[in-house]
Design brief:
By secondary structure, this protein is mainly alpha-helical. It has six helices and no strands. The chain is globular, with a radius of gyration of 13 Å.
């Protein structure tokens, strides 16, 4: 959970874009290592979320906010000139990501 803790610290320190990137990295690693079981080697994050949501009810319940985090990260990482100030909806997405990622870490199957 160290990377998630670092993401929270980055957010608190005002480095929102870094926090978003770290949350995306946590999500991808978590799904690949603990949830997917080699069925989707090399699959993109969108398909990883959907596959894992089909396998685990608690992931399915969080599918929409997980895709929200994925889309926010894509916008942040691939749009030049993105500032550090977040819009209110983007901030809500990031704050929800902290809670959802913590929950998924706690529920993660042992690899």
């Amino acid at each position: 959970m160290t990377l998630l803790d670092d993401a929270v610290l980055a957010y608190v320190a005002g480095a929102s874009n870094a926090s978003i990137a770290m949350c995306r990295a946590v999500l991808e690693k978590l799904l690949k290592v603990h949830y997917r079981r080699d069925e989707l080697a090399g699959e993109d994050l969108e398909n990883l979320i959907d596959f894992c949501a089909g396998q685990f009810a608690w992931v399915a319940q969080r599918r929409k906010p997980l895709h929200g985090l994925r889309k926010l990260a894509n916008r942040t990482l691939h749009s030049p000139g993105t500032g550090t100030a977040l819009s209110a909806p983007d901030e809500e997405t990031l704050l929800a990501a902290f809670a959802n990622l913590k929950f998924l870490i706690e529920k993660a199957p042992v690899p």
